Amino acid sequence: MKQLFEFFPIILFFVAYKLYDIYIATAVIIAATVIQVVYTWFKHRKVETMQWITLALVIVFGGATIYLHDEQYLKWKFSIIEWLFGVAFLSSHFIGKKTFIERMMSSNLTLPSLIWKRLNFSWASFFISVGFINVYVMYNYNTDDWVTFKTFIAPGLMVIFIVLQMFLLYKYIPESEE
Hints:
This protein is mostly helical. It has 2 domains: 1-70; 86-172. The chain contains 7 helices and no strands. The chain is globular. The mean pLDDT is 92.
C-alpha cells in the first residue's frame, strides 16, 4: 500500500495527461504531491528530506511549466530529482560512517563494507543514468513518449535494477531456520 501511495501523484498525472493535457496534468501532480506531503506529515509527524525537495521542485518546475506554458520545465524536474538522489548516494561515501543504502537496509541485511559501498555506488549510478536517459527522451521524443517513459519505463527500469540487485545479494541473505 505504501508503494502505491508513493506513486499516487504519478498515477494521477498520467490519468490527467491522457484525459486533458500536460498543463492540467502538471496542476494535478502539484496538488497530488502537496496532498501526499500533508498526509505524510499528519500521519507520521515527519516528512523525509527528499519528499520536501521533491515537493519544492514539483511546485517550482510545475509552476514554471504552467505559468510560462512550457513543458520543458516539468520534464527537467525529473532529471534533477534523479540527479539529486544520485548525488545523495555518492556523497554518503564521504559523509558519515555508513553509506546511504547501508543506513536504509542494514537492519535487514548484513553485508561486508566493500559490498555496501559497491551497492551504494550502483544506486548512485542508476539514478544519475536515469536522469540522463530522461534528458535524451525529452529532447528526442514527443511529449506522449516522455510521459510514457516517466510513468512506466523509468519505474520499470527501477524494478529491473532491484531484481538484478537481489540476484547479486542473494548469497548474503541468511538462510532461515525451519
